[in-house]
Amino acid sequence: MTAPGLPMTVPAEGLPARVRIHEVGARDGLQNEKTAVPTEVKAEFVRRLADAGLTTIEATSFVHPKWVPQLADAEQLFPRIADLPVDLPVLVPNERGLDRALALGARRVAVFASATESFAKANLNRTVDEALAMFEPVVSRAKAEGVHVRGYLSMCFGDPWEGPVPVPQVVRVCRALVDMGCDELSLGDTIGVATPGHVTALLTALNAADVPTPALGVHFHDTYGQALANTLAALRHGVTTVDASAGGLGGCPYAKSATGNLATEDLVWMLRGLGIDTGVDLGRLVATSVWMADRLGRPSPSRTVRALSHQEQ
Ligand code: HMG
Ligand code: MG
């Protein structure tokens, strides 16, 4: 039986039974808005995402407020949502960021490295290795406090300044993040240039370098419409953590060619069709993205949000 607004479920071989969605709309999405979204709207957004069944909701970043002014209200936002019964990871680039996050009781943090020198410089004002050195005390202190650490790696497939990124270059930085003690990695296609064969090649190379698949998540931006195909390739490889952004919000202020992340609704539609459990109520999620699109004053780029909400184009 197919309920209205849901795909027919037809399972396929070789896929996981369950996927954990790491929702990044409130961080990756809102960090890229031209104007800062009011703190109370962000808090309501996160509450609605939790109400839709998302259990990992990246809330904000404790970065330098001049670098990302859109998230300068992290201290005001976090206490407003800390009571939610969900995981609320936050980005911390350095010890100053970790101090700020720990002071508010954050239990999950993420450092964010780059596979390329150009993006490391643009995003963190550091070389790749200087950035890794900056993360080291962050990871060790977080681990000593029993805080879960995610290690993002940007530009895993291509870089706007350097072009295609060789797989071994990516593997080296992933290995460094794992050796440092990160509990999980998120492989970022920051500018959305990956294609499925490339995804499989990187995952295979990481396994060969003793980075096990359960420690890996994928983070696809959808610039060239490849994010769902890339996700399916990752699922076939055994990946069960997928980053996505409600309504397809997103981008990166320090990588101009980045567009929004894979839309959570588009992901949930595909997973639901494959019979893969996510715990997400698609109708509630679409309603949340429509509500947020109203606040932002433009329609959601998600195909699924548009189809299910009959938004004006
Ligand atoms: P810097 O200018 O080199 O900083 O920036 P610094 O270490 O020289 O410190 C300068 C001043 O900033 C000092 O103050 C520090 O205390 C202060 P002073 O002593 O001069 O008064 N400071 C801070 N203040 C508040 N919070 C902090 C902090 N750190 C230093 N955490 C820095 C280096 C890392 C701080 C800067 O480059 C930065 O904040 N970068 C963040 C960029 C960012 O957030 N980018 C977007 C997220 S990454 C992304 O979107 C990709 C991802 O989605 C995956 C993908 O798609 O690929 C994750
Ligand atoms: Mg991103």
Automatic annotation (TrEMBL):
<protein>
    <submittedName>
        <fullName>Hydroxymethylglutaryl-CoA lyase</fullName>
    </submittedName>
</protein>
<comment type="similarity">
    <text>Belongs to the HMG-CoA lyase family.</text>
</comment>
<dbReference type="InterPro" id="IPR013785">
    <property type="entry name" value="Aldolase_TIM"/>
</dbReference>
<dbReference type="InterPro" id="IPR043594">
    <property type="entry name" value="HMGL"/>
</dbReference>
<keyword id="KW-0456">Lyase</keyword>
<keyword id="KW-0479">Metal-binding</keyword>
<dbReference type="Pfam" id="PF00682">
    <property type="entry name" value="HMGL-like"/>
</dbReference>
<dbReference type="InterPro" id="IPR000891">
    <property type="entry name" value="PYR_CT"/>
</dbReference>
<feature type="domain" description="Pyruvate carboxyltransferase">
    <location>
        <begin position="19"/>
        <end position="286"/>
    </location>
</feature>
<dbReference type="GO" id="GO:0016829">
    <property type="term" value="F:lyase activity"/>
</dbReference>
